Amino acid sequence: MDFLSVTELRAIDAAAGPQLYTLMLRAGVAVAAAAARLSRLRGTRRVVCVAGTGNNGGDASVAARLLAAEGFSVKLLLAASPERLRGDAQRAFEAAREAKADIEVRDSEAAWQSAAALSGEDIVEGVVVDGLLGTGCAAAPRGTVLKAIRWINRMRGRALVVSVDLPSGMNGDTGDCAGEAIRADWTVTLEAPKIGFLNPSAPPLLGHVEVANLTGKTPTAADLSTAAGLIVPEPATERQYDAHKGDFGRVLVLGGAECYPHAPVLSALGARLGGAGLLTLAAPAVSRTAAAAWVPEAMFCELPVSMDGEISSDALERSGLKLDDFQVAVAGPGLTRSQNAKALLEQLLSCYHGKLLLDADALTLLPEVDLSGCDAELLLTPHPGEAARLAGVETREIQRDRLGWARRIADRYRAVVALKGAGTVVCEPGGRPQINLTGNPGMASGGMGDLLSGVIAAQWARMPAVAAAANGVARHGTAGDLAALKKFRGAVAATEVAEWI
Fold first, then answer.
1. What is the Cα Rg of the chain in Å?
2. Strand 355-358 relative to strand 328-331: parallel, antiparallel, unpaired?
3. What pLDDT does 233 receive?
4. In which element (H, E) is residue 146 found?
5. Angle 20-42/87-98 helices, nearest 10 degrees?
6. How far apart are the C-alpha atoms of 114 and 413, rounded to whole Å?
7. How far is CA 232 from CA 153, 318, 388, 417, in A?
8. How far, in Å, CA of 325 to CA of 345, rounded?
9. Which of 22, 43, 274, 403 has the fewest Cβ atoms within 10 Å of its own Cβ atom?
């Protein structure tokens, strides 16, 4: 999906004309759904919606009314006198008042600094909805709005924060903040992502980005020279009534060693949760127990190991595996970087003719092998260090230009690339990069990439490579966000993320 400028988004609103209130109602539904979801994570049903005088405030008023109707404990805080409201924002506020919503007017700086306000008793373990400012914010917030922003940020110590469209205080076109701004956990951005989200300083304020498409159309940017598009996962398709397991792909996960027995198991777990129809895990015997515990649905193919505990170079012949029986193969998790592993990878590249996802150690070995005889379709999932080895540069160079290097690596290896990290980048050869705005620092732990490789592989069995990578990355990142927010922004393990995929 394209990133749009504020001018382009205002044109969409203008085109809606009399239907603009309908769009506000749809926005309120999306915001209410996000707040309800996060409220359930916190184990409470407490929500405070903070509304300004603009349309974002109207969206917050709609969300408050809807949540109250669903039995949530909701308070609507208006950061202005009701007499200042106009148009659809006034209409939405009046609808909330007529529905007997619990409304408190805090139209002065002092009201946001009272002892009762600062205690935050109404919001402990709940959710705060930020509907203060919209895309038109360019100057530094001041006065009552500034105090409201500070209040919401203070409440982050007690509650999760959902921003409407973008965090209040952020400029939609630049992603800069002239003054103080909300730090959101979840942003429900309306119609399309804002071009300012591409600013590297924006994602830490945005949190998880969810796009609420209000018109049902996919808006296109007038200027397609922007650096990237946003990854928006395709909605899951309903399985046909007469579907069988063969319809959803045969996936092989190959990897492991006596020193890394669980990496391929995590990849297989990702493939199973990602929806693979038939799954085979080819790994050393030392992986069998973990596989039985975590992925009992997978067929286990024991691979012989060398004296050093690595998969032997002739393991494929001795195992009897028929590689081309599998639509997708994952190779690399826990494989090691030994000569045995290199020989195994070379054989895989020369003998397999399906879809091959290379991860972890296979990526480190890839620059050392001859790809001239490779007939497989490739998908690479490097972290920045692995990307640096693939490109022959320092890791800091990759991090300086993640979009550019994802494109260059895709072109060099004629492969779809998912460059992992903060803002994972997906790119196909000759294509325009797509950036992911899900995921969080709590996911910075071992095994997370192994899980992701399996999720992507399961998607790849049913769709083109670039769509599989994009969907897999977004699904994995969303699961990580839910797992971390469940622990109130805590660190999460790969197996905890797996519970939300």
1. 25
2. parallel
3. 82
4. helix 143-155
5. 50
6. 61
7. 28, 43, 27, 17
8. 18
9. 43
Structural tokens at position 92: 């939405």
Confidence (pTM): 0.94
Lowest-pLDDT range, 25-34, 112-121, 207-216, 295-304? 112-121
Nearest to 363 by CA among 411, 323, 426, 415: 415
Contact 262, 239 (CB under 8 A): no
Query: Domain 6-226 adopts which CATH fold?
Result: Rossmann fold (3.40.50)
Antiparallel, parallel or unpaired: β 127-131 and 102-105: unpaired
Sign of CA dihedral 397, 398, 403, 406: positive
Q: At what angle do helices 465-486 and 20-42 cross, to 10 degrees?
A: 60
SS3 428: coil
The arrangement of strands across the sheet holding 46-51 comes to: 102-105, 73-78, 46-51, 127-131, 160-164, 186-190, 208-212
List the structure tokens of 499.
Answer: 């519970």
Q: What is the DSSP string of 218-268?
A: ----S-TTSS-EEP-PPPPPPPPTT--GGGG-EEEEE--BTTS-SHHHHHH
Taking alpha carbons only, the member of 186, 208, 359, 337 closest to residue 270 is: 359
Supply 491's token pair: 């660190």
Angle CA(310)–CA(414)–CA(224) in degrees, nearest 5?
130
| Residues whose CB falls within 8 Å of the CB of residue 413, separated by 6 or more in sequence, listed in order | 366, 371, 378, 380, 390
Least confident of 165-174, 192-201, 306-315, 415-424: 306-315
Specify the 3-state DSSP secondary structure of 3.
coil
Sequence-distant (6+) residues with CB within 8 A of 114 are: none
Q: Strand locations in 335-472, DSSP E? A: 355-358, 377-380, 415-419, 425-427, 434-435
pLDDT (tens digit per residue) in 279-323: 999 999 999 999 999 999 999 999 999 988 999 989 988 988 999
Report the DSSP pairing between strands 102-105 and 73-78. parallel
Query: Band of the pLDDT at 225, cuts 50, 70, 90?
Result: low
Per-domain boundaries in the chain = 6-226, 245-498
Whether the Cβ atoms of residue 340 and residue 255 lie closer than 8 Å to each other:
no
Structure tokens at 205: 């304020």
Q: What angle do CA 438, 439, 443 make, to 5 degrees?
A: 170
pLDDT digit string (tens) for 18-66? 899 999 999 999 999 999 999 999 999 999 999 999 999 999 999 999 9
CA 414/CA 269 separation, integer angstroms: 28
CATH number of 245-498: 3.40.1190.20
